[in-house]
Give the backbone structure.
Amino acid sequence: MGYRRINDELAVHHGTKVNDKRVLRLCRKEHIQSTIKWKPKSCTRNASDPMYTAKNYLKREFHADKPNQKWLTDVSEFKYFIGSEIHKVYLSAILDLCDRRIVSFVIGDHNNNPLVMKTFDQAVAAEPDAHPLFHSDRGFQYTSAQFHTRLKSHHMKQSMSRVGHCIDNGPMEGFWGMLKREMYYGRRFTDRETLVNAISDYISYYNNERIQRKLLRMSPVEYHDHLEKAV
């Protein structure tokens, strides 16, 4: 954790209220350093034969006034090792821009259409009355006619990042970076089950326990419930 997160944890979970500068000073004295953000090495390229593309209606407006108003989605890759062989799993997730909770996620062995379809189906099952603006990159799954039909059937407007502009889907990329810095980087996973469990456990921790200053020092689920009660 960085000094801001340490301060938030102290205030919310331990009843210790101090300012950021004091925590920073103590961190420097004790040589406590947070994990470092790395600049993404690549961006998803345009599908070679897209069936459907949409404009960038989100336009980097990463604020939503209420839950289920704007959803972001993407797929990220994770590796594990069996001896010298490298194996991969893929995590597909949908993030709500208002409360930053992960609405649904699916882990699979292949980055394909069924992976993102299942993620979408889980999200609408969890939030059947949701009709958000749905934003993604231009990966082949999201430009397929099958996926576009799913969105239309649930009365969702589709939005897509411009080619080569990862920042158009910035909060989703930010979640991948957070997950990998705090759970994945620096560890060597030697079986699929351990990696899948670690990903699932982290998402549960992120949704239910990981407080965020932008969410008034609440976790995504706590902030979601707070907004629901205020309606």
